[in-house]
Hints:
By secondary structure, the chain is of the alpha+beta class. The protein is 12% helix and 29% strand.
Amino acid sequence: xxxxxxxxxxxxxxxxxxxEFHVLREKGTERPFxxxxxxxxxxxxxxxxxxxxxxFSSDTKFDSGTGWPSFWAPVSEDxxxxxxxxxxxxxxxxxxxxxxxxxxxxxxxDGPKPTGHRFCINSVALHFKEQKExxx
Length: 136
Ligand code: FE
């Protein structure tokens, strides 16, 4: 079981940029096609911008055409949590970091093979760790 992070709102405000705070802690959504990882194709691992938890591998990233970085699977089943989200008059499934509880984006079941899953994630909620050449 990973250690959970519990920070106060004030602590999160100090630790995050205003954009990160809005998405991760206030469940905001960045405007489509504005995020820095939408067309990002380097090999490596996307981690939580709030706590560094490893979330998605570049190996599962695909071009969904939605304007947000999209993945067909998380790094592991326990790296993210999914939760029903009925806000804004829509039935959606929210994706949260399992370690800090930060809001990452939403989950849909219209993704590509092999899972058919689509994790639609805000770039702002992610940091990227590039894979070292020697690890190939
Ligand atoms: Fe996190």
